């Protein structure tokens, strides 16, 4: 038959969603190739899942393969199969079409024009109702698969979100062997609102790039002099600023003598930007998850955070009851988080208050992701607690960032920015930091802006974002499975013939091992694949990655300068020191010094 116009039940109408689901397309291809009778496994697509199509592809039940039909001499339009097809189409009221072979045993129906999505869905439903039809699909035009590239204008500067790659022959900026690869992971999972990340930090400020991404949190800062908002615990998790000035030190020396005089850090807003800035909205930056939600839990004000506030904040974030001094309980958290990211700590060993809380959270399916610290020393608490996901910071090319703590017990490592003005090697091997959200206020909050930051404080939320994607892909993961997935999916640490291994005598930029920086370098795409695999079967086969070797002219130039950070004094050790279960001391905010300096530089550049 020739090409002729065809119309049934009125004209095509309405735009439809682009693209049938990938899984259904894959199933259709498999049926065309294998010719299996699997009617029960082929649910009809919803009308909205069709798009414009150049005809339909129909498979009749028990239709012989085309090569078999040719051998039997029954390939003409008026043969037995042609008669069956004519009858089926006639019952559907279709009389004008051209049929030609498609796949192994199906027929392509050409109606001489392109069908609209709604019309294609309607005709397919009529054909599918015939008991002689095995399946019907639209003959849609498939598009070239492209990487998920957000429209956010600063995305081009967010090198830490790109896929890992590069070699020793690349320019320094293109050496990205230490990157976690969020851009590649987004092809598997872009994140869902239900995979909430609680941020135990300084609170949060308003920012247009966080609109709709922030859940109602809570303020746990109980000491009013530190709280800086005029009261103790309340339901307002906004950040009033955590600056410390000379007036603080003079008026209350017992509280502020060991606190540095500094402007507000806006650290909680910076962390929130990495996890949940609105992505693909043609504004600002992208974040780890395209539909993330963060729960701000304010535990820090001026001069730090108290352990009691931190552990109560952790429990509330997880949806557990928190008692009050009056004998009652705080209002329950209506949006419990399964991921808690914390970038506070001290150089003391893990204490029972932290450990018992982390153990309790694990029993309720909650994981704690904690920064290792920035003092070239052993991991700080709570990153050194059993069951916590301790995170070290890497340079973009995979070796340890100059400041990062390291040592046994960490789970994984990932980028945190590596300042180009710190350490002897910074000017040669450093980078320009991680772009995130910020605030223009020096003390109190002002307009939202953007900043470049450094520190393991920012490595931790990057890992928390990866865990959010894992739980988006498979909400049934247990804390033990999440930790196992991060370890099993990690890429091996880089090696180098010239950069020394991290040790008590080599604490600056150095080569990590599984004994010093966790199982390897975070690989988000593989971590998501682990989550998807464990959701379907019991075992996961890790991808075998080659071990990258760092050796290039810049590295040789840097090494020739001597150690990146001078060896410690003879009487100092790499081991954690200090005790304490009260207020976290001078090292209270793991990335503060680095991040504040970076923010200042960023705003100076804009001026």
Give the domain tally: 2
CATH architecture classification of the largest domain: 3-Layer(aba) Sandwich
Beta-strand percent range: 5-15%
How would you name the CATH homologous superfamily of the largest domain?
A: Peptidase S8/S53 domain
Strand order in the sheet with the most strands: 6-7-5-10-11-12-13
Helix content: 25-40%
Any idea of the CATH topology of the largest domain? Rossmann fold
Helix/strand-derived category reads alpha/beta
In total, the number of strands is: 15
How many helices? The count is: 17
Largest sheet: 7 strands, parallel
Note down, in words, how this protein is organized:
- With 607 residues, the chain is an alpha/beta fold.
- The protein has 2 domains: 22-140, no CATH class; 153-606, 3-Layer(aba) Sandwich (Rossmann fold), CATH 3.40.50.
- Strand 8 and strand 9 form a beta hairpin.
- It has helices spanning 22-34, 66-72, 80-91, 117-128, 182-185, 224-227, 246-251, 253-256, 267-276, 307-317, 352-363, 426-429, 456-473, 479-489, 524-534, 553-559, 592-606, and strands at residues 53-60, 98-102, 106-110, 133-140, 197-201, 218-219, 294-298, 300-301, 304-305, 339-342, 367-371, 389-394, 412-415, 434-439, 448-453.
